[in-house]
Specification:
The complex is a heterodimer of chains A (about 290) and B (about 170). Chain A has about 290 residues and is of the alpha+beta class. Chain A folds into three domains: about 5-40; about 60-120, no CATH class; about 130-280, Thrombin, subunit H (Beta Barrel), CATH 2.40.10.340. Chain A contains three helices and twelve strands. Chain A has a six-stranded antiparallel beta barrel with strand order 1-2-5-4-3-12. Chain A has a six-stranded antiparallel beta sheet with strand order 8-7-6-9-10-11, with no helix packed on it. In chain A, a hairpin with a 7-residue loop joins β7 and β8 (about 215). With about 170 residues, chain B is mostly helical. Chain B has one domain. Chain B is built from nine helices and no strands. Chain B has helices at about 1-15, 15-30, 45-55, 65-75, 85-95, 100, 105-135, 140-150, 155-169. In chain B, α4 (about 65-75) runs antiparallel to α5. Classes of the chains: A alpha+beta (about 290), B mainly alpha (about 170). At the A-B interface, α1, α2, β1 and β2 of A face α2, α4, α5, α7 and α8 of B.
């Protein structure tokens, strides 16, 4: 009796399973495509999921990245020992130069202060920094983000600017409890409002997956010159104005590009800038894609 | 009785080896190394592991599990949801149909097979990202990515072989 029952179940189920087997892979492929659609439509829920999963894996990545960082430190130490003497001479020379600059800066600061008091100028609120370690660099061919060990608990918010020592690195796009993700300025979806130093020309810095992001919306007739420094303009409200980004150059394609000041290939620690601004979401230029 | 339980536990742990090795490979690929240009061309370790296990032990690595691993990768890495699943599943599909061909072939043939798979997976990635951003992207990063994977292929494969022989034979 039992065997006959089983037999009939198999007889019904066999064609079904055959069908499933045949369409198993196409179904999974369709499911992957469906996931992409969901990622586009329901950005909020997907971001939530990302934040949770990244939170869960950050401690593991943190532990795994320590040996790599130690090895890198050791190599760097060895390399520095070799040219210790030359480095010292260079730093001495630089130090004397910077001392002169310090005098100039102090004088200008005093002058600026007195002029501002004459004009009753309302200064920007001072920025504060949160420093965090880079533990994850997912390194896809088309995605440039890093995961850092600071999150909502430490005061990180979406849209804040991330700096390394020398210049702007990217923008916080996802915040978990104790981890967050920074979209680098070289990513395809990165858009940062900037201003050129001497010509005061505004432009949009747009990542194009190369090491040198493009400057968009620079009118052809404006006198911009290669070598001009590029700063954040502060338009949109979330980024403080005047963060150094890089140096402009004309690329091989004849378009203006920016060479970032920060070395994006060796990020170890990042500073997240807490700017006491209004917190407008306008700084986040909408782009179709994963990370916005 | 207790022996049977421990034996089963041991067997289950061993059977999780393909899954575990892919998760470890995924996390290893995400560790930031301070080498210039490294983050762009991180070798596709996950693809190498998938290639090995689908050819040698597909019974321990179900397509649905691979799909889930792809989703996990996209969630952690910040790439658009579904992209990794898509190319992993396509790779799995291709390999499972060509498995008989690869089994028992020389290492050179496996290497050649992986080269085809790596470049195919890169092509799929490039296509998806180009469609998403709606213009032709520079394909060099994915090509370098695939070439690097092909270049280091013997090392992870050797390690996987050792693990396979030690725990699953």
């Amino acid at each position: 009796m039992k065997t006959r029952n089983n037999g009939s179940v198999v007889r019904i189920a066999a064609p079904f399973w055959g069908l499933m087997q045949r369409f198993y892979f196409p179904l999974l492929v369709l499911a992957a495509v469906a996931l992409m659609m969901i990622g586009h439509v329901n950005v909020g829920a997907v971001d939530q999921a990302r934040a949770r999963v990244t939170d869960a894996f950050t401690p593991i990545l943190n532990v795994m990245s320590r040996p790599a960082a130690s090895v890198a430190d050791a190599l760097e130490y060895g390399r520095q020992l070799v040219d210790l003497h030359e480095e010292n001479a260079r730093l001495r020379e630089e130090n004397t130069r910077l001392r002169q600059w310090e005098q100039v800066a102090l004088r200008l600061e005093a002058e600026n202060g007195s002029l501002r008091s004459l004009l009753a100028f309302k200064a920007d609120p001072p920025a504060r920094f949160i420093t965090a370690r880079v533990v994850g660099d997912p390194g896809g061919a088309f995605v440039r983000t890093v995961v850092i060990t600071a999150g909502a608990r430490d005061g990180v918010e979406r849209g804040q600017a991330a700096m390394s020592g020398q210049g702007l690195v990217g923008r916080v796009v996802q915040v978990g409890e104790w981890s967050s993700r920074v979209l680098l300025i070289t990513d395809l979806n990165a858009r940062i409002p900037v201003v050129l130093e001497t010509s005061r020309q505004r432009a949009m810095l747009a990542g194009d997956n190369s090491d040198h992001p493009t400057l968009l919306y620079v009118p052809g007739n404006t006198a911009v010159s290669p070598g001009e420094r590029v700063f954040t303009s502060g338009h949109g409200g979330l980024f403080p104005p005047g963060l150094p980004v890089g140096v402009m150059e004309i690329g091989q394609d004849g378009q203006p590009h920016v060479v970032p000041m920060a070395d994006l290939s060796r990020l170890e620690h990042l500073q997240i800038v807490r700017f006491g601004g209004t917190g407008g979401l306008a700084a986040e230029a909408a782009q179709p894609g994963a990370m916005q | 009785m207790a022996g049977g339980f421990w034996h089963r536990l041991d067997q289950t742990a061993r059977n999780l080896l393909p899954f575990g090795s892919i998760v470890v490979a995924m996390l290893l690929a995400m560790v930031p190394l301070p080498l210039p240009g490294y983050s762009v061309v991180t070798p596709p370790l996950v693809l190498i592991c998938l290639f090995y296990w689908v050819i040698h032990r597909p019974d321990l690595l179900r397509p649905l599990v691979v799909f889930a691993l792809g989703v996990l990768h996209d969630l952690i890495s910040g790439s658009p949801l579904g992209v990794t699943s898509l190319y992993l599943i396509l790779t799995y599909w291709l390999l499972i149909t060509q498995r008989r061909f690869f089994l028992g072939r020389s290492f050179g043939m496996l290497w050649l097979g992986f080269a085809l798979v790596a470049f195919g997976a890169s092509a799929v990635q490039w296509l998806v990202f180009a469609l998403m951003s709606a213009h032709l992207l520079d394909a060099r990063p994915v090509l370098v990515h695939a070439a690097l994977g092909v270049a280091i292929f013997p090392l992870p494969t050797y390690l996987l072989q050792r693990l396979h022989r030690a725990y699953l034979s």
